[in-house]
Design brief:
Elements lengths: L6 H11 L5 H9 L4 E4 L2 E5 L8 H7 L3 H8 L10 E5 L5 E4 L1 E2 L2 E2 L3 E4 L6 E5 L8
Antiparallel strand pairs: 1-2, 2-3, 3-4, 4-7, 5-6, 7-8
Length: about 130
């Protein structure tokens, strides 16, 4: 179950990640913090932004984008500067790639077997939710 998100929590996540997230992603997460998207017929679980507004939201968002991105940096082949925004349960991830503290709007798929990334959408808004 997804909840709306106060923008202050998104700003905190951006500060911890050291990047600005794309506008369409920000708007989608403020409206519905989590959920799933479809990419090439596969379902991906969106990683939420940590929401500390109450105990229920905290419990449901504790495996947040900052934590998951930090964990993925320990994986062999993880793309430097990648921000993990979704997982499909097989070890693969949907990511934003960063440059100069700003995330590119394009969404990429990172494959854990090879460490390769490929663009799957020009913008987060292009993903089927």
């Amino acid at each position: 179950m997804s909840f709306d998100l106060d923008e202050k929590y998104l700003v905190e996540a951006e500060e911890k990640l050291g990047v600005s997230l794309p506008p369409t992603y920000r708007a989608a997460m403020i409206q519905k913090n989590g959920g799933e998207v479809k990419v090439a017929g596969d379902r991906w679980q969106l990683i939420p932004i940590l929401d500390k507004s109450d105990r229920k939201r905290l419990a449901r968002t504790c495996n947040d984008i900052v934590r998951e991105t930090n964990e993925k940096t320990k994986w062999a082949g993880w793309s430097e500067g990648a921000i993990c925004l979704a997982e499909n349960g097989t070890g693969d991830a949907l990511v934003f790639l960063t440059g100069d503290k700003v995330c590119d709007a394009a969404v990429h798929c990172w494959r854990h077997e090879t460490g390769a990334t490929c663009k799957v959408a020009k913008d987060f808004a292009d993903l089927a939710r």
